[in-house]
Structures are given as structure tokens and as C-alpha cells.
């Protein structure tokens, strides 16, 4: 499942991933693997971020995962934010599919004038991070899950 709003579609259709390698600092996040906590799954590096948030602060596991599994691509690279974000998601999905064949991982890319943010959560029945109406968001939005082989 790959969906995006019209704002993201404009950027995504011009995206060229030829000869793009994932930045080393983002690759370190991928290589940190996944860790379980409170029935949720997190990227290891994201779980190391100092926060006082707990699962009780969120309405569901999806919200908690999206809060912790949030990566500002522009904190790691100086240019090519969307290209790096797509490569990052592809790498995370590749890692995920090696260890979690029965569950889908959802990636949400949001882009504004400042950069690109990527969030991840496990696909759960009855839990959503975003509205189904992506056109209602001001920023560019792309949603894809780890079962979409066309994305990678």
C-alpha cells in the first residue's frame, strides 16, 4: 500500500534514486535493529532517545510507536532529504522483513519547507496515525507499508 497526497506526488514523481546511497548516520539507525517494549516495536536508536514519554501518554500503541520512531532526516543530512528518506525507509523495511514476516510496518513520510520526517508503526487493526484523507494535510504526506514490494 503506497498512498500520498497531491503535494507529495509533485515531489515524488521527480525523485531520482539512481546512485543514491543512504547516509552513514541513517544507516546506523537501521543497523540498530528493533527492540520490543510495552507490546510495541521500536528502532533501537530511536528508543535510546531520552524522553519521559510512556505508553500511558498515548491513546494506543501506534501513537506511542510514532512518537518514539520519529526521525528528522534533516538532522542527519544537508540535502536530498526526500531521497534519503526513501532510501532510509527502504533499508528499514528490508531489515524489518528479515525478522517480522507476519507483521507489516508502516512508514509515514511528511515533508514541509524545513525538511522530511519519517515515522514508523506496526500495522494494527483499529489503530491509525493519520486520517485516510491525506489531502487534508498541509504538508506533503506519503504512507507505505513493508509489504509493498513496488516501493523497494
Overall description:
There is one protein chain. This protein has 152 residues and is α+β, with helices and mostly antiparallel strands. It has one domain (2-13, 21-145). It has five helices and seven strands; from the N terminus they run βααββααβαβββ. The protein has helices spanning 6-12, 24-31, 44-47, 61-68, 81-99; strands spanning 2-4, 34-37, 40-43, 70-72, 105-112, 115-122, 140-145. Strands 1-7-5-6-4 form a five-stranded antiparallel sheet. Strand 5 (105-112) and strand 6 form a beta hairpin. Helix 2 (24-31) runs parallel beside helix 5 (81-99). The protein is globular. The mean pLDDT is 91.
Pick out its properties.
alpha+beta, 5 helices
Q: What's a quick, concise take on this entry?
A:
The chain is α+β, with helices and mostly antiparallel strands and 152 residues long. The strands form 2 sheets. It has a 5-stranded antiparallel β-sheet. Strands 2-3 form a two-stranded antiparallel sheet. It is 30% helix and 24% strand.
